[in-house]
Amino acid sequence: MCIRDRLCTETITLIQPQRTDDGEAYLLTEIIGASWYGKRVVTQTTKGAEPQNTYIVRIPESNMPAGVMPKRGDFVIRGIVEEIKHAPADFADREYFCITSMGDNRRGRLRHWVVSGS
């Protein structure tokens, strides 16, 4: 986790799709002070072994805006995003991932959220 917030130096944007009567809208939340870890792994597909990027982001509880809770299907982008009309096409050229797993680690000394995906 972020020991005394020294490793939590990244600014990220949490993108949460919202269903509306007019289609889909996106709630954008800028979060300052997260840790970002990415690596390339090999996964087995029907076409054989293929490389894939995987990411883990940790957000200290104190840095998460009140009332915001990440969930599966949300997107996390490294950096700031000001407007999205079509996800993920609008940020396909950026470093991002779709959340496939999340953990609420707000117990103990190093209270934080952890989200991961590819």
Task: Map the helices and strands.
Elements: E1 10-20, E2 23-45, E3 48-60, E4 75-78, E5 96-105, E6 112-117
Antiparallel strand pairs: 1-2, 1-4, 2-3, 3-6, 4-5, 5-6
Structure overview:
The protein has 118 residues and is mostly beta strands. Helix content is 0%, strand content 57%. The protein has strands spanning 10-20, 23-45, 48-60, 75-78, 96-105, 112-117. A six-stranded antiparallel barrel has the order 1-2-3-6-5-4.
Write down the secondary-structure element order: EEEEEE
Number of strands: 6
The end-to-end span amounts to 20 Å
Helical fraction equals: under 10%
Q: With helices defined by DSSP (H or I, 4 residues minimum), what is the helix count?
A: 0
Q: Which class of secondary structure composition applies to the elements?
A: mainly beta
